[in-house]
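ok so i was messing around last nite and threw this chain in just to see what happens. nothing serious, just curious
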Amino acid sequence: MSSRDVILARIRSAVANAPDVEIPRGYQGTGADREGIVEHFAEKVRDYRAVVHVVEAAAVPDAIRDALTRRTAEKVVVPGGFPAGWLAESAVEDLTTVDAVVTTCAVAIAETGTIVLDAGGGMGRRALTLVPDYHLCVVREDQIVPGVPDAIARLDPARPLTWISGPSATSDIELNRVEGVHGPRTLEVIISI
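result:
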């Protein structure tokens, strides 16, 4: 019998006569109050040192092109399922040679300034947003929810979820901030209203 089997057998024995306990999962969302939600989300994202633009829906393609031009991004990855009118899809084999990645998101959380990707259309696989140094993400106003419980309610837990709260950053023991260690050094967000 392996160590694993021994441990599992002990656990099963210990809980054999324990009563079934129902665990409540009805987390309370913050509700449907959407007043000022775009501004709140934008403020929280800026707190993470990300660049934020709030634009009319019709101006999204221009805002994307302007952001990439300012960045002088020539080699850009755009995942499948990205809205065709915004930017043409593109693929690349070696992500280390890419200047930028442009994605959409599954949901965005106003209270935390967090963007969640689920590898769906317009988001691509997880590596797309972790390897390039610059990530440009387009968030539609209707994707912004007040809080984390509201986001959880919209997400499929079986999908690979990537939660992004600003550019990648960490600090050493002396609290010296280092950006770009575990993901993009620069995050830019276009909020479409």
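not much to say yet. Residues 36-192 form a domain with the Rossmann fold fold (CATH 3.40.50.10420).
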